[in-house]
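Deliverable D2.4 — example input (structure tokens):
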């Protein structure tokens, strides 16, 4: 299954596409959509939306997962992040994908085995799970790939086991 993972951010939105059978994962692409903090939010949303559309068209994922919103002291930041997440959810739904959201702790637990892992630990485990020569440099892209891996593992655990054809 080809899975798109997205780690939403107003200045840096990470994305990662992974091919996975639930146990073995292969990186297809990862990257970061960068916007300027000086630009109005609506212009930043257009850029993020356009880039997500491109990723969807080029890599045609069969499933998508996003990182859930986390609670922060700065309400304005959370609201801006929610706008980015809304754009992503809209585009994924328009593409006909089932979308699942995972909390940061769920993603870390699935990838590292510890829900309070640091970003560097996530990067190292993503590298290990994908058998890459080096870590994915951007923490945002690495987090997005981790979201995709989390979904692959979750889907594998919850898919029905087929024993054989019925007569």
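Example output (designed residues):
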């Amino acid at each position: 299954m080809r899975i798109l993972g997205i780690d939403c951010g107003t200045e840096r939105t990470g994305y990662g596409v992974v091919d996975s059978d639930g146990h073995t994962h292969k990186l297809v692409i990862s990257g970061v959509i960068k916007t300027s903090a000086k630009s109005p939010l609506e212009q930043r949303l257009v850029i993020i939306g356009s880039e997500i559309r491109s990723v969807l068209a080029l890599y045609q994922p069969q499933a998508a997962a996003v990182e859930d919103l986390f609670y922060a002291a700065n309400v304005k930041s959370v609201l801006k992040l929610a706008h980015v997440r809304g754009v992503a959810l809209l585009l994924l739904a328009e593409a006909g994908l089932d979308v699942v959201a995972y909390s940061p702790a769920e993603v870390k637990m699935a990838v590292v085995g510890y829900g309070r892992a640091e970003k560097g630990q996530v990067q190292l485990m993503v590298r290990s799970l994908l058998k890459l020569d080096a870590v994915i440099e951007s923490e945002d892209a690495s987090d997005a790939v981790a979201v995709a891996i989390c979904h692959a593992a979750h889907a594998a655990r919850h898919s029905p086991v087929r024993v054989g054809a019925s007569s």
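The CA atoms of residues 2 and 19 lie 4 Å apart.
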